[in-house]
Every structure is written in C-alpha cells, then in structure tokens.
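User: two proteins, same treatment. go.

Assistant:
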Amino acid sequence: MKQSASLAAPPRRTRRIVLVSLAILGLAGVAFAVRRPLMMSAPRCMAGRWHGCFDTENGVLLMMLVGLPLAALVVWALARRRRAAGVTSAWRMSLAEVGMVYGTVPLVWITMMPGPGAGIVPGRVSLVPLQDLVTMGPVGIGGNLLIFAALGFFAPIRFAALASVPRILALGAGCSVLVEIAQYVLRLDRVSSVDDVLVNAAGAVLAGLASRRWWSTAAEVPSDQPRPALASAD
C-alpha cells in the first residue's frame, strides 16, 4: 500500500511542475507579445509617477506583471502560516485568495479610469442586450471576458458556497453590475452597458469551468483554524 502511494507521488509532483512551467511560459509569452506598449509606460512607472502610469491601461498592466513575484511571496507566506497551524489545503487556499484579488483589482481599476469628459458628460446607459457587442470588437470582448475571470476561476476553489455554475454566474454578474453602476454614478464618461455585464459574467463562468477539478467541497475545512479534536469517550 505504501509502495503504491509512493509510486503515485512522483507523477503528481511532475504534473504540478509541468503546470507551473506552462503558466510561467504563458505569462512570459504574453509579456513578450505586449512588451512594446507596456514599455512605453515603464519610465514613468519606475519613477513612481502617477500620471502616465497608474492612470493608463499600459501602466497598470505593467505594474501588475512587475508585482507577480510579490504576489507569489504573499502566497508562500500565507501557505506557510496555515501549514504551521495544521490547515488542510493550505497552498490551494492561499493561492486562490491572492489570485482572485490580484487578478481582479487591477482590471477593475482599468474599467474605472475616467474618460476625457468625466464629470462633464452625463452618465449614459445601454440596456438593449447584444446591441454593443458589435462596437466592442475582439479586443473589447476579450478584455470584458478577463475582468472577472480570475474571480470566477479562484472563488469556487476557495469557497465551497460558490462552487457551482449558477453561483459563479451570479457572482460575476453582480460584481459587473456594481462596476457599471459606479461608472454611471461617478460620471466617468463611460457607457454603462448590459452587454458589459453579460460578457463579464460569461468570462467568470468560463474561467470557473476551467478550474472545476479544483473546486472546494463542503467537507473541506473552510477556515484558517484546524478542526478541533474529538473528545475521547471515558
């Protein structure tokens, strides 16, 4: 029995190494493909200037890539603390928490950037489904699919209560509605569109389906505290 378990361990470890390697190669490929527009914001970002860095899409994406080692360090620190406390699935929980925050906040920040007429142009609303998809274009649709993709991917891994397609759909749609309402109320010179909500929610669901094999279950420990030991009968 022990021999079979030991034989099963190396393939599992190898699979993890392969997945991590593929993820690193994928990120490196994306960074290489968009290196030119990102590097346009590099001087201002490296100098710590707000204008030209954190108020531009290229600047936010660049700092998101630069901050990946720090995010990995946070995952390692959280996992180490949980393993010391005897928490099961410490690495998975820590990665899910950092991933859904780090992969969502910068993209939401980009969607909340004001346009040239912010504060002057009144809020605009588009409530006709599928009307704005044509004007979005491939880049716009792809960007909207990614906004809550990290949330849809990691939230059901961390929380068993969200481990179902309807709940991921509701989570993505709800977060998207809040963003669209904020754009309208703050008069950011952006169109609050129902199509944005539909595409955002679809992106969350598709990402959630991609992580389905790692979804959390009710039988797993949801908190950072180990399970209490059962009292032995006298």
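Protein 2:
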Amino acid sequence: MAPQDAPGTGGLSQQEENRRLKRAVEELSILNDLARAIGASVNLQDIMRTIIHRSIRAIRAEQGVITLVDHRSQDVMKTLVRTMASSLESPQYHFSQSLLGWMHLNKKPLTVNDPRTDERFRGVQWDESIRSLLCVPMMVKSTLVGVLTVYNKRDGATFTDEDQRLLAIIAGQSAQIVENARLYEDERALQKMKEEVRLAATIQMDLLPKTPPVVPGYDIAGVSIPAQLVGGDAYDFIPVDDTHLAVCLADVSGKGLPASLLMANVQATLRGQTLASPTAAVCVQRANKLLHQSTSSDKFVTLFYSRLDTTNHTLTYCNAGHDNPFHFSGPGAPQRLATGGLVLSIMEDFPYQEEVIRLSPGDVVVVYSDGITEAVDPRQVQFGDKKIESVVAERRALGAAGIIDAIIGAVREHAGTAPQADDMTIVVIKRL
C-alpha cells in the first residue's frame, strides 16, 4: 500500500490551487473590463482616469497616477501630462523625478514597500504619508511613453509580487491605447493651430489694400508675398485728404505668426498717426514712441513712410532703418532715399528727419523689403540691390504693376529651386 499524504497536506495544496485559479479569473475579468472601457475612447484624460481607477481597485491601493513622458522635449526627464485619482480623501502625492529617472534607466516594474529605508532612493524626500508604492513602465516599441504608479496598499499591507505582475500587465495592455490617444490629441491640436493660422492669414490679407489707389497723374501698386502663411511685411496706402496720400512699407523682425501680430499693431498705429500728424517725420516719431511702449525689447520694425502731394508733385519721406528705396528720374543713376533715422521701437524718443523729393513725369519710386534683396539661389548668392536697379532700368516704361511683376519674376528666376526664406514686399509709385 502506498503511504498516505500527511494529514491536511493535500487540502492545503488544493486550497492554494483554488486561490490561484480564483485570482487568475479575477485578473482576466479585470483586464477584459479595462480593455472594453478604454478601447472605444479617444479622450486621453478619460482613458487615463479609467486606467487609474481600475488599477487602484484591482491592487487595493489608495491612490494612483499616470505620468506621460514628453519625447518632444530635449529634457528626457520632462513630463507631459499627469493624471491622478484617489480612492480615499488623501493628499495628492507628487510624482518623484527620482522614480522617473529610475524608470528611464531600468524600464522594469519597481516595488518599494519602505521608501525611507530603500537604498535605491537614498536621499530622496518622500511625502510623509507615502508608506509604499508600486511603479511600472508603459512601453511602446521599447520606448518609455509613461509610468503608472500606485501608492499605499490599503489596510496597511504591502505590495506583493502578484500586485506587481498584475499592474505590469495593465500598463502593458494600456500603453499603446494611451499613446494612440495622445497622438490623436496632438493631431487635433495641430489641425486647430493650422486653422487658426489660416484665419490669421486671411485677416492679415484683409488688412492690406484690396485695390491700388486711384490718384490722377500717378500709377501706384503694391504686393506682399509672405514666406509662410502669415508674414511680418506690410504696405499701406492711407488717404490724408484730397491731394495727399500716405504710402508706407514696414518690415517686422522675424517671420510667421508672431511677426504678423506685431505688424497688425504697426498698421493700426500708422493709420491712426497719419491722420493726427502734420508731417511724415512727426508721424514716424509718434509711431515709434507708441511701438516702443507696446513692443518687447527683442523686436523692432523697419519702415519707409512717405506722403505724396499730388498738387505739387512732391514726395516727403522718412526712412526708419529700412532698405533705401530707389528714385529713378531721368537717364542718370537712381537716387537712394536714406533720410530718416533709427528702426522703430528701439529708442522711445528719436529725432527723425524727413526729405522732400520732386517727381517729374516718368519718375519711378521703388520701395521693397529685404526679402527681395536677400533672396538666395541654390549657391546662397543673394539677389542684391544692383539687380533691382537693372530690372527697373530696363522696365521703366511699364506700369507700376508691370514693374513689380518684373522684379518678382527676376527674383524667382534667381532663386531657382531655393525656397523663399523671407517675406517679399514691393511698392511702386510712378508719375505718368
């Protein structure tokens, strides 16, 4: 006869097996419920809150937190989003950078049942109420995308290997869904930003003159081509009275949306001061003072501002640090219009000067931004002032719009396959 098992041994073994089977069924149910709860959602915060609530209930913890890693930052320790939930009225714990650093290095589950004596975190200042914690990585294709942490096992107990295994499975099952939701939110944010930029571009184009001014005896035209959807260049034609027209071209430092916002302020300032100022120099001086008060110190504006007198056929101008426009008159070399002063917004009070030039029949004034002269070809050779001079000299017989088209065409031909790097703006005044 075979010897019998010791009394109770078979019973204990069967009891342990039953316990394991019961826990396995419970874990499978937890994971299936979690998969259904988060699988159909694309809301990142809702998904993370669901994961945390299910985790603290399954592990019987007091509090949980998911911390996502910001891989777009150069700082590998920077976190992107933190979502926390608690099963009790306990204070919110601060996720330790030491834990995140440990996860970046090790990328495996971590159980700490006595934080203050754990040699791995010597010197770390833990919140007084943290008795224990369980931390698991959320991995996608071997990359750490987040960390799931639960704190304080309920009833004063400690976290077990089974708790660690279950939480690791939850994190592994959830990581890709969380990452997909984050990418979906990033895509939505990008689309929203693109739409806002598109609307900003529409608004900016609406601020530019829709049609050239009709001035007896003159042909006037302008164009602005931004390097991006929105730009930092602008030109304007502002009627002063029946015989005077303000013509200006401004260029804000920088490109894109920030430059366009500042340019809108410049345009509004110039329009207001044109009607309030008796001369070109006074208008520029007042505009400079206002812009200095409302603009950060790292931004500035170049401006060519002029007033055309259609009765006396004179152009009074003030050049605030802008590329010197050309005045073509007669067969000789063109005059450069340089009188004025410093770029706008650098000094609050600056004594700007003005100059008066006379416009004879056939005279042409060409005002442009540095996006024209600094346009480069594939070898990084700039277009330059001399090419503007030669193009206009050859095409002076054309109308104002034709001269602009000839300059833009020459710039395009020069640049070839090189992308446009800066806003390009031109204004032409021609006396008929």
